[in-house]
Design brief:
The protein has helices spanning 19-31, 44-55, 99-116, 129-140, 153-167, 208-229, 234-248, 293-306, and strands at 11-15, 36-40, 65-69, 80-83, 121-124, 147-149, 178-179, 187-188, 194-195, 198-199, 253-260, 271-279, 282-286. The termini are far apart. It is an alpha/beta fold and 311 residues long. The strands form 4 sheets. A 6-stranded parallel beta sheet has the order 3-2-1-4-5-6. A 3-stranded antiparallel beta sheet has the order 11-12-13. A two-stranded antiparallel ribbon has the order 7-8.
Amino acid sequence: MVSNKISCSFKAAIVGCGSVGASAAYAYVLDGSVTQMALVDIDEGKAAGLRLDLEHASTFTPNMQIDSSDDLSICQGANIVVISAGARQKEGESRLDLCLKNKKIYANIIPQIAKAAPNAILIIVSNPVDVLTYEAIKLSGFPKERVFGTGTVLDSIRLQFHISEQLQIHPSSIYAHVLGEHGDTSFPMFSSANVLGKSLFDFDNFSSEVADKCYEDTKLAAYRVIHDQGYTCYSIATVIREITNSIFEDKKQVFTLSVPLDNYYGNSDVCLSVPCVLGRGGVEQVLKVPLSKQEQDQLKTSCDSLKPFLN
């Protein structure tokens, strides 16, 4: 089978080698799209240990050059910089509770990253991702298409999973997405959710009550995983890998990414998740999709909830 992957050098830097950063690095090693990887952590030993552990797998993985440091200058030449650095969400703590801690961290690292890798695409993963995406755009001075957050991509695939269990249809065939804040004011776009054009609500075993339950399970997913495991990492690492491949292969794939809104149903000056076309240059289009009146109201609520945290 002929690969669609572009044959060229592609460097990714991961800033923050905690559970999310380490899992993303492992996903990159297995995938093979990334040919060079820089691992950065305030704890130099942690980054070096991760590098060595990944290098030991090189007999069975695609060829990759891996470097590690506590110095952000190692990001030089990166095509993308994945930023997962920051305080971890604790049990009982909302993503917005992390705001002040992680804004301080971003004020320190983003200017350094921008200086080291002025042509990179910044992928924001740290929470609260919408607030930190807004901060990263300001602090980096980068064009807005080159800075975005992973947003509600994870929420959307969680929703697709819970719906798939109900319908007994593979999640990849279910077109249902979550928009808004990656947090408590997110909302499902059920008005247009479908399986190859057939509305979810036309299936015998799907109803408004089932939809509400699927979304409730989606909203509680992170808190449940954090309660049981202490953190989430593998699913978001998979999201990072998919986003990276869309950039590397210039796929023009659509993701619900956290981006700055410009009169999106009357909402501006805030970052949150809406459908975006992602390619080699970053966010190439922001798609204004049909929303019901209820969904438009939910979008406004989500915007209003975030704005107090942006100053």
